[in-house]
Backbone:
């Protein structure tokens, strides 16, 4: 199991190429699993379910089509992207369980800073309540998205992963409808009043990963929901 942290800003197309090559090597038994932590320059990515109308400012930043699941998302400085190339042939071929674990990973990481991250039915990602704000028109509490999750499986090896907002420019999200959800906003650890650095988050991601995923099993898991 390898952990890699790239300094500065990583080109998105180069990141995809590296992920594709590493995933192929993992599937062939020629390389071990990799969690790769990066930051990207400002850009939008369109997942497999992206709707053209959700790209509200198409000329603002570069837009990349992605084969990951999900809709439009933003990446940029101040946001930690964790690309997880994990072998589900060994960890269990269950897509829903894997997405659940990715969410659990984020929730456990946020808990290191006293932040309560929550799942929401029908909304992939992790959310935080904002009790200091007025409730929504239906009376439910205001809440913002703090982390996005989008994965792809190739020969049961995962590509892409998750992003957690540390201190990005939140206004940059206004060029899209993030993940196709119009009724909620986005937030970050610093926006919540927490002076968390990228190094702080990286340490928490590493510690919580071991808690949630554990070591790579030696042999394959159970049959999955569908073959990628």
Residues:
């Amino acid at each position: 199991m390898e952990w890699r942290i790239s300094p500065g800003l990583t080109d998105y197309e180069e990141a995809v190429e590296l992920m594709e090559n590493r995933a192929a090597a993992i599937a062939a038994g020629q390389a071990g699993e990799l969690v790769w932590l990066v930051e990207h320059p400002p850009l939008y990515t369109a997942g497999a379910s992206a709707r053209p109308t959700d790209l509200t400012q198409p000329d603002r930043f570069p837009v990349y089509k992605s084969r990951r699941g999900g809709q439009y998302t933003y990446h940029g400085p101040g946001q930690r992207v964790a690309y997880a190339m994990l072998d589900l042939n060994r960890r269990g071929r269950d897509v829903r369980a894997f997405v659940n674990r990715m969410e659990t990973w984020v929730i456990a990481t946020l808990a290191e800073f006293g932040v309560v991250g929550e799942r929401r039915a029908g909304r992939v990602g992790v959310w935080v309540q904002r009790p200091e704000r007025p409730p929504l028109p239906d009376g439910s509490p205001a809440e913002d998205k703090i982390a996005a999750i989008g994965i792809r499986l190739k020969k049961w090896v995962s590509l892409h992963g998750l992003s957690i907002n540390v201190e990005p420019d939140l206004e940059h999200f206004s060029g899209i409808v993030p993940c196709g959800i119009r009724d909620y906003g986005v937030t970050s650890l610093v926006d919540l009043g927490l002076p968390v650095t990228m190094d702080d988050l990286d340490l928490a991601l590493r510690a919580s990963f071991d808690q949630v995923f554990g070591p790579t099993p030696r042999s394959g898991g159970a049959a999955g929901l569908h073959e990628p």
